[in-house]
Amino acid sequence: MDGSRWITTAGLAAALVLALAPAARGADETDAELRERVQVLEQELGLLKRRLEVKDEEAAAKAATTVQVGAGVDGFFLRTPDQKFQLKLRGYTQFDSRWFTEDENAGVDSFYFRRVRPIVEGTLFENIDFKIMPDFAGSTVVLYDAYANLHYWNLAQLQLGKYKPPVGLERLQSATSLMFIERAFPTQLVPNRDLGVMLQGNTESQLFSYQVGAFNGVRDGGNAENSDVDTDDGKDVAARVFFHPFVDSRIAPLEGLGLGFATTWGQEKQAPPSYKTTGGQTFFAYRGASGTTPAVREEGARLRLAPQAYWYWGPAGLLGEYVRSNEHMKRGSSNVTADQVAWQASATYLLTGEAASYKGVVPLEPFQPSKGGWGAWELAARFHSIRLDDDVFPFFANPDTAASSAEAFAFGVNWYMSRWTKFVVNYEHTWFDGGAPGGKNRDTEGVVLTRFQLSY
Amino acid sequence: MLSLRKRPGFAAALVALTWLGAGIARADVTLLNVSYDPTRELYEAYDALFAKHWQETKGEAVTIHQSHGGSGKQARAVIDGLEADVVTLALSGDVQQLADKANLIPRGWQDRLPNRSCPYTSTIVFLVRKGNPKGIKDWADLTRPGVAVITPNPKTSGGARWNYLAAWGYALRENGGSEEKAREFVRSVYANAPVLDTGARGATTTFVERGLGDVLITWENEAFLAETLGKGELEIVVPSISILAEPPVALVDAVARKHGTTELATAYLEYLYAPEAQELIAENHYRPSDPNVAAKYASKFPRIELLQIDRDFGGWREAQAKHFVDGGIFDQISVSK
């Protein structure tokens, strides 16, 4: 190769090297840059992850101390995360009507609020429950429930305040869960509300429960509403036991059987009771003052005995109770011991497949026609009776105005639109022994009752 | 007739039955020590030492339960009902809350034990990656762009509040006491903090285990521990100025009385000042309060110019009100970030 060709070749080679050298340098830099960029990205990703973890820790710590506020199936509530402190607001209202079907002995047809009851209840320090429930129906204010329940142990709870004494089976049932619009005659022989202290307990499965307490003592069907202070020194003792003997047996038809017995005993000194029909008409009252003869007063010992039972299986339910109230009446210098007896037998059947229950019915399909839901439909029937002791006539009770007995049968349809709303229609027919002038029977009463109930 | 008026004997019997029922035999004695985040290793070792000491001197077995977390969070937990027999928190301000907000301890609690109830102290240093690739030497380097600072949240962590005040104190010194410049300086430091853990141990986890960040501002004892665990991949950098961190200990009187552990809990705290406990403290990288033990371990702990909370910041009450309450300076710089 001559010199010029060598120089040309060398020059071309040098030019080729110079051209390729930047590309070679650029590939190395790209790797290093890429590595650095990956490290930076890894750092950023790691920091993002850590930030999320810290946020989760902070959110969890905040949730552990933040009071929860909400609304649910049981009303409105505030509660601490550990649920040791809770406040619940709920209530129920019942808008009723009654229509008498017979002109004789008819009361006044009317719409009315039967119950308007806001309920404030809650828990303090995990083991102290409380409940306050006034009633505003009839445009009056009556305190029905105001009590605290200390429940450190299931089998030994202490309840203090004003509440239902543990006696009548249908009385102890919530007003929102009743088979019929008005409770039956036996409920008129047991206390409604009273003030006292009660020890109670139950096993986990409710196989056995008991209540025993001391109360001021109210008359039959009475509510300590006029005054929350007793009028005499005597106190009533009330006790009740209730069993579900087959609740753990796995014999399905018998699991819903409940049997119980309640009793009260005490010394009374108060105005006597009176008794009303389902339509709200008084068919028995003791004599008031007449001339120099004073009004009848209940004075002396009173003993109540109340065997009771229910049975629920699938869509069917039965409830029965018997109450005997042995009480002493006084008028002037005369005394009488009266045995008042009442009993009832009630039955229900759900047509739409739900399970009947003492605690009420929740429809499987709430009323939503567009979705094919028609709520739950229930048929009800009952027979109940009350008999007043013949010994109270005629001096303590006027046979021309006070019946010696009343019996009634009733039919009803309950429509549960949802767990919060219910429509009820009842027809009840009541007939009497005595209670009219000349030894005649008081005219029968026929009444149609309706109810719209909203509970939450 | 049931009349309760004339049956006092019945009521007395009921009371007697209640007292009998309440006579439960005493089980093994236990204590709960609610502490701040990085003291886990220290108290694991100390609890074993104390339990041995108590067994030997009193013949009684004792079990000590520990709870650890951000100091502020721990104090709030005790106020809210966590039944601590003793607290060993990061700063006296958190312990003071137990007196101010819940009456759990008396107001003069800090004078009940030597050295203002501080059996050990510490300070704040930096922990960096091996070779110190970002060249962190002092507080000012934490404000440089591209430096990721790991430090916990002063709202929940006592250690974080020491960190913050050390930075603030540095900025005041460098800027002739200008609070405006100190505010800007601290804002810049926290602007470089990509994540604020709830406690000092969480921040250590982020830096050491997750490998995140360029510098960790932390307790000196935590830095020593992390350096050991880091297997040579971490280095401690001592800044030009820091703060004397004085984590106090206190008996929670109301709880100890309720548990019947006052004598035991008091002994538990007093034993922290015993020579063997002070040795243990130094071995766990805390600066012991006993001057003899401190002298023995002097070479381990670097000499730093230290700010003091009472002398330089008016005490914790003032520092808390100025910097760390809701709407305080820390919240303001966080918003403006």
Describe this protein with a few key phrases:
heterodimer; A: about 450 residues; alpha+beta; Porin; 2 domains; two-stranded antiparallel ribbon; 3 helices; 20 strands; about 15% helix; about 45% strand; B: about 325 residues; alpha/beta; four-stranded mixed beta sheet; about 15% strand; disordered N terminus
Description of the structure:
The complex is a heterodimer of chains A (456) and B (337). Chain A has three helices and 20 strands. With 456 residues, chain A is of the alpha+beta class. Chain A folds into two domains: 1-66; 89-455, Porin (Beta Barrel). A 16-stranded antiparallel beta barrel of chain A has the order 3-4-5-6-7-8-9-10-11-14-15-16-17-18-19-20. In chain A, strands 12-13 form a two-stranded antiparallel sheet. In chain A, strand 12 and strand 13 (282-285) form a beta hairpin. Chain B has two domains: 29-121 and 246-296, Periplasmic binding protein-like II (D-Maltodextrin-Binding Protein, domain 2), CATH 3.40.190; 124-244 and 304-336, D-Maltodextrin-Binding Protein, domain 2, CATH 3.40.190. In chain B, helix 3 runs parallel beside helix 4 (92-102), helix 6 (158-174) packs across helix 7 (179-191) and helix 8 (200-209) runs parallel beside helix 9. Chain B is globular and about 60 Å long. The chains are: A alpha+beta (456), B alpha/beta (337). The interface between A and B is medium-sized, with 20 and 19 residues.
Global mean pLDDT of chain A: 90
Overall morphology of chain B: globular
> Considering the protein shown, what is the CATH homologous superfamily of the largest domain in chain A?
Porin
From the 3D coordinates, which CATH architecture of the largest domain in chain A would you assign?
Answer: Beta Barrel
* CATH class categorisation of the largest domain in chain A: Mainly Beta
